[in-house]
User: Which sequence fits this backbone?
């Protein structure tokens, strides 16, 4: 542990880029968004695509079950020791923002037990449009919404839509059936987010999760590059 | 002592994991033992005078500087349920993380080095109180309050209980909390003089049994 920490390094207990032994820790990316928008499906797809190129682990935050962790285990996207479920006590946003201690412990235990890791994905329990991850827990965050949840969500904004490092609009295959206007969603998202990136994806399509995976690779390259300096 | 530091330590918003635990209330609600404000009060009073008294004494002793390793063993011996021992260590580890940032101290660092997966929460709380310049009775007060405020908050969520009613329950229990804290501080001083075997060992078997059952549920809102 940080036996020699001084006052300035107090943040070392959570957000420090280094582990207690001095090595650089894994990049941590959070995935948040409303219930059922496709967070777990995106995590599963990312794991399948990236697991051969980097060392991965996942933390799920289920609200009252272990369903998300069990889905990932059943789908065998990663070996079981690389998937941890955190219990959130009826308040998913608290566990990723106001009191991140349980999630930090889960991430650190994964690094201790199956590390070294390149990337840890932290999936929040499905929540409302204001739920964002603390910078003490993750280095970057993805907010996942879907076209079936209403095409006015990008216009409504809120911290998730406006400030997430990547906005994913999922289930574009369903747009014709629910009457969602993708062009309008794109324009609204652009208005809310200026230069911040937006990806429209359908996990039922050929492209699948590839655009998000590309973004994750870029994030990891930047993280690893910063380490080399 | 700093009265304000005590408020910081006792604040329910302290990011130390408490929000995910119901202190046995979820199991008691499911079993039909808590159905409203009155039965919540009975539950809290029982908890306060049993596990609450033990936890408060442990915290008080840690605040005095009694060896935390001996206190952690004493806590283990007083917690028959394995599920509750696990929960107490988890919460201890989370509190230690928060405390080390809030009140950096060599004693907290040493505790983290000795118990990387967590010491019992009241032992950590007492050590944190010490680092914050608080005394044994402060630590005991804080622990007594947490012991009942945790279940009360959880029941607001579990039963949609009127939050004003839940707060009134806590207010009515205040004199009991004061008594428990005072007695715990005395017990802590005795442990300092005569060793940890003199610490109280009151228990609430239904809480222990309930916790074991709860840990096996497939669907639950709280971790304990
Ligand atoms: N048609 C379609 N369905 C999708 C797509 N992505 C996910 N789904 C389905 O949407 C449902 C919910 O997906 P999940 O990944 O479980 O959603 P989640 O955001 O993790 O949900 P919570 O964790 O419960 O908040 C599942 O039945 C998925 O198979 C998509 O691109 N198109
Ligand atoms: Mg999910």
Assistant:
């Amino acid at each position: 542990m940080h036996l020699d920490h001084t006052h300035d390094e107090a943040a070392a207990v959570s957000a420090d880029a280094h582990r207690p032994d001095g090595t650089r820790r894994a990049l941590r990316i959070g995935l948040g968004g409303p219930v059922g928008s496709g967070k777990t499906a995106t995590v599963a797809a990312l794991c399948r695509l990236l697991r051969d190129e980097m060392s991965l682990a996942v933390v799920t935050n289920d609200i009252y079950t272990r369903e998300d962790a069990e889905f990932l285990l059943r789908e065998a996207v990663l070996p079981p020791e690389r998937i941890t479920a955190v219990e959130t006590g009826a308040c998913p946003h608290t566990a990723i923002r106001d009191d991140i201690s349980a999630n930090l412990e889960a991430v650190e235990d994964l690094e201790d037990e199956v590390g070294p890791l390149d990337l840890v994905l932290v999936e929040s329990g499905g929540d409302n449009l204001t739920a964002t991850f603390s910078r003490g827990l993750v280095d970057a965050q993805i907010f996942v919404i879907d076209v079936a949840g209403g095409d006015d969500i990008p216009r409504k904004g809120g911290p998730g839509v406006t400030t997430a490092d990547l906005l994913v609009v999922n289930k574009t295959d369903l747009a014709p059936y629910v009457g969602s206007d993708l062009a309008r969603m794109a324009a609204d998202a652009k208005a809310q987010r200026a230069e911040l990136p937006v990806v429209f994806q359908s996990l039922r399509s050929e492209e699948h999760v590839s655009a998000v995976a590309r973004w994750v690779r870029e994030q990891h390259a930047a993280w690893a590059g910063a380490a080399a300096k | 002592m700093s009265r304000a530091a005590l408020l910081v330590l006792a604040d329910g918003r302290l990011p130390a994991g408490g929000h995910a635990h119901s202190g046995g209330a979820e199991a008691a609600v499911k079993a039909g033992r808590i159905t409203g404000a009155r039965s919540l009060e009975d539950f809290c009073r029982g908890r306060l005078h049993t596990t609450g008294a033990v936890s408060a004494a442990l915290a008080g002793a840690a605040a005095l500087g009694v060896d935390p390793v001996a206190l952690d063993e004493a806590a283990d011996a007083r917690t028959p349920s394995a599920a509750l021992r696990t929960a107490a260590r988890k919460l201890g580890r989370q509190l230690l993380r928060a405390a080390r940032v809030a009140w950096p101290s060599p004693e907290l660092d040493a505790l983290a080095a000795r118990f990387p997966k967590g010491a019992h929460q009241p032992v950590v709380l007492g050590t944190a109180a010490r680092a914050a310049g608080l005394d044994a009775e402060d630590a005991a007060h804080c622990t007594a309050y947490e012991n009942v405020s945790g279940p009360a908050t959880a029941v607001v969520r579990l039963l949609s209980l009127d939050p004003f009613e839940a707060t009134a329950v806590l207010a009515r229990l205040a004199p009991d909390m004061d008594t428990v804290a005072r007695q715990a501080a005395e017990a802590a001083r005795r442990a300092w003089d005569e060793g940890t075997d003199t610490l109280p060992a009151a228990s609430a078997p239904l809480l222990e049994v309930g916790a074991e059952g709860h840990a096996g549920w497939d669907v639950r809102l709280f971790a304990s």
Observations:
- Residues A 39-40, 68, 123 surround magnesium ion (ligand 2) (CB under 6 Å).
- The CA atoms of residues 29 and 87 of chain B lie 19 Å apart.
- Residues 39-207 of chain B form a domain with the Urease accessory protein UreF fold (CATH 1.10.4190).
- Chain B has a mean pLDDT of 97.
